[in-house]
Write a structure and sequence with these properties.
There is one protein chain. The protein is of the alpha/beta class. The protein has a single domain, classed as 3-Layer(aba) Sandwich (UDP-N-acetylmuramoyl-L-alanine:D-glutamate ligase). The chain has 11 helices and 15 strands. The chain is globular. 43% of the residues are buried.
């Protein structure tokens, strides 16, 4: 039986100047759609899961185009409210060499920021659902969204749904203090955090004397969550990085070896990691954290080789990459 996985967030129009260009010089833009929770839903759909995306989009051609984009990736959009006039937009300047990538948001007053819980059918959203995923980016959007999310979390918890939260703090969207208040209010619902020691210290009150693994263990103690997953990135150039992944569970800590790779498009790498972890935990029934970490890391690394926000390869593609990392051509 397919697991039904629900994600909640905003899907945006992404506009990118071609050929590593900058916004000021751009005469045209490459367009696609993306957003953290939408990216996770798309990736999990590629892995064979029933994924349902909960959101709000404008009732116009841009909103319809975003829905068609999700449907083409086998994502259920029956819980997307179509109302309002504005879609969130972000501009991406793709970095090259020593010049980093830049993101410029234009998402204030988007339809999603006005979403209220009474616009959603909460019981239908979580009917047969086993997992609910969202991120700190969604929490940053508006007070209306935060209140709606609380209703979703209460309903998910009442139905025994496993809940994962990607801290995913963006300083261009809100302050650390504002995020800390919002994160602390939802921490009690979380079973799995995608988080770093920075998140533990700044948002959940973990003592800064505790570093690394100890900080993440303290996060588990404070919140009663089961897992903290995450990864560390080493940057050599804008288009050459390395990643290694880790998981903390009570007295258990596992870390992978780093993988170094060239980057075609970095956006969505963290979302692919989250999707890979969620998929593997479900596939293994939480029984093999080594395998889960390996799969999550491989999914993220492969995403960096694909253009656009979302990961669109299959489970078999990821498994073949794990098996054949050092082969130039798989025959």
């Amino acid at each position: 039986m397919k697991h039904k996985i629900v994600t909640f967030g905003e899907i945006m129009l992404r506009l990118t100047p071609p050929n590593y260009g900058i916004i000021e010089d751009a005469h045209d833009f490459m367009a696609t759609y993306g957003g953290t929770e939408a990216n996770v839903a798309i990736s999990l759909a590629q892995f064979g899961h029933h994924t349902s995306f909960v959101s709000k989009l404008p009732d116009n051609q841009l909103g319809e185009a975003a829905v068609k984009f999700l449907n083409a990736q086998k994502v259920d959009t029956s819980s997307v409210v179509m109302q309002g006039d504005n879609i969130g937009i972000y501009f991406l300047e793709t970095g090259f060499g020593i010049r980093p990538s830049k993101v410029l948001y234009n998402r204030k007053f988007s339809s999603m920021t006005t979403l209220h819980a009474d616009e959603l059918k909460l019981d239908e959203i979580f009917e047969n659902a086993t997992w609910f995923h969202f991120s700190g980016i969604t929490l940053s959007l508006s007070n209306d969204v935060r209140q709606t999310l609380k209703k979703l979390l209460e309903k998910a918890k009442s139905k025994g749904v496993f809940i994962s939260f990607d801290c995913n703090y963006r300083k261009t969207l809100w302050t650390i203090d504002a995020a800390k208040k919002a994160y602390s209010e939802i921490a009690q619902y979380i079973d799995l955090f995608f988080a770093t020691p920075f998140d533990a210290h700044n948002f959940f009150g973990v003592d800064e004397k505790l570093q690394g693994v100890d900080a993440l263990k303290s996060l588990l103690d404070k919140t009663q969550a089961t897992y903290v997953f995450g990864y560390q990135r080493s940057v050599y150039q804008a288009n050459e990085n390395a990643l290694k992944a880790y998981v903390v569970k009570k007295d258990q800590f596992i870390e992978t070896k780093p993988i170094r790779f060239q980057i075609y498009d970095r956006i969505g790498g963290g979302d692919a990691f989250a999707a890979g972890i969620i998929h593997s935990l479900i596939r293994t029934n939480h029984s093999d954290l080594n395998k889960t970490l390996t799969f999550g890391l491989a999914t993220s690394v492969l995403k960096h080789t694909l253009w656009g926000d979302s990961f669109k390869l299959s489970e078999l593609d990821v498994l073949n990459f794990i098996k054949n990392q050092n082969k130039e051509v798989v025959r």
